[in-house]
Amino acid sequence: MSNIDTGGKKTPLYDKHLDLKAKMVDFAGFKMPVMYNSINAEHLLVRSKVGLFDLSHMGEFIVTGKDAASFVQKVTVNDVSALNEWQIQYSCMCHADGGIVDDLLVYRLPDRYMLVVNAACLQKDLAWLKENLTGDVTLEDHSDDTGMIAIQGPQGQALFSKVTDCDLDSLSFYWAAEAEICGHRILFSRTGYTGEDGFELYLKPDICHEVWDKLMDAGREFGVGPVGLGARDSLRLEMKYLLYGNDMDETTNPISAGLGWIVKLDRGDFIGRQPVEQMKADKPPSKLVAFEMSEKAIPRKDYSIFAEDDEVGKVASGGYSPCLKKGIGLGYVKRGFTKAGTELSILIRSKKASAIVVKPPFYKDGSHR
Q1: pLDDT tens-place string over residues 122-148
Q2: Mutual angle of helices 229-238 and 39-48, in 10-degree steps
Q3: In 3D, which of 200, 234, 173 has the Cα closest to residue 367?
Q4: DSSP state of 83
Q5: Residues with Cβ within 8 Å of residue 162, at least 6 apart in sequence
Q6: Nearest one of 62, 127, 135 to 95, comparing CA atoms
Q7: pLDDT, tens digit, for every residue of 350-368?
Q8: Which of 160, 152, 191, 200 is CA-nearest to residue 44?
């Protein structure tokens, strides 16, 4: 972790992070704050009060045209036709062999679709979408023209209500709206990747500083603070929210990753449908499970997972849970070892540490609705 400028793109809030003495890291081609004070403190702030995240590194693609709906339906596994205007859907895109290109959010807006993709996958996602472009469709990359701030925590609505006159009580989880916020007309959604209630704001880069400052001012009475990527990772892990590049990639079938719930096989064809359908019918040879450490130990990515003397899998994501105060992880294990209550062990520095498969999420008291 370093604040030495080694290149990389900067979000509109880069100077703000430096002013706040954030520890900056290179992430997905951007200079991003990994933490401001401590990962544990920022994690617990989001669970108990409210935090602000700079997510301006995320990618935003705009899809328009007469055939926009059928195009988005073809390239994603969920059922886009089920979306109402202003509704949002978690989904993923698959290669023809069923491997995951990326996971994403699909926004159905009145005059367009917006696809929100992972920063690390932005260029390959864009290239893949262009390769599969058909019909009367225009695909535009608005990522560089879009800043993004997330408000996350049980006090998120109380904070946000101070800077907008939008009726937030009427906005359900995974719905979007446009409203006057901090004096600007802004698109926002009731979404997030922490397990807490919250909102994600899509902003023109030149107003990011102003909106950030006004949100911080509005949130002082609620104990608001800035939160970095370190806590974002531990927060999502406690919820068993997957991280592309760790828990899934182009070699992973959505069924193996436990994403069968977003795959709608009864809604027609999509790219990768046949191998995904086949995997569901055959049952995957290994599957992603959640596990807790039964002793004081921290699992990390690529550590080997054992059942007695047999290696049965690998850790995909692992770390310390500030809420459970123990090591937790996600890992792919062979069929037969995926049931909750199954005892496993993780090989950590040449020593096996005991673990147990649990039913996710690890943290069960999130405030999102």
Answers
A1: 999 999 999 999 999 999 999 999 999
A2: 60
A3: 173
A4: P
A5: 218, 219
A6: 127
A7: 999 999 999 999 999 999 8
A8: 152
* Measured distance between the N- and C-terminal CA atoms of the chain, rounded to whole angstroms: 35
Asked if residues 202 and 191 have their Cβ atoms less than 8 Å apart, the reply is: no
Domain 59-144 matching CATH 3.60.20.20: the answer reads no
Query: What pTM does this model have?
Result: 0.96
Q: Answer whether residue 5 shows pLDDT above 60.
A: no
Sign of CA dihedral 257, 258, 260, 262: negative
Please state which CATH number belongs to domain 285-360.
Answer: 2.40.30.110
How many C-beta atoms lie closer than 10 Å to residue 261's C-beta?
Answer: 9
Q: How many other C-beta atoms are found inside a 10 Å radius of the C-beta of residue 216?
A: 16
What does the mean pLDDT of the chain come to? 96
pLDDT at 7: 62
Residues 6+ apart with CB under 8 A from 4: none
CATH for the 9-56+146-237 domain, from 3.30.1360.120, 3.40.640.10, 3.40.50.2000, 3.30.300.30:
3.30.1360.120
Nearest to 12, CA basis, from 144, 164, 128 = 144
Instruction: Provide the token pair at 201.
Output: 């704001």
Q: Does the pLDDT value for residue 114 go beyond 80? A: yes
* 97, two tokens: 């062999």
Q: Which amino acid is at 150?
A: A
List the 147-152 sheet strands across, edge first: 176-181, 184-189, 198-203, 147-152, 51-54, 225-226
Q: Which residues pair with 289 in a beta bridge?
A: 331
Domains of the chain, by residue range, sit at: 9-56+146-237, 59-144, 285-360
Q: In Å, how far are 86, 88, 166, 221, 289 from 200, measured between CA atoms? A: 14, 12, 14, 21, 29
**Beta pairing partners, 108:** 113
- Tell me whether residue 255 is exposed, middle or buried, using C-beta atoms within 10 angstroms of its C-beta: 0 to 12, 13 to 18, 19 or more: buried
User: What are residue 62's DSSP bridge partners?
Assistant: 114, 140
Cα 344 vs. chain centroid, distance in angstroms? 27
Peptide bond into 360 cis (omega under 30): no
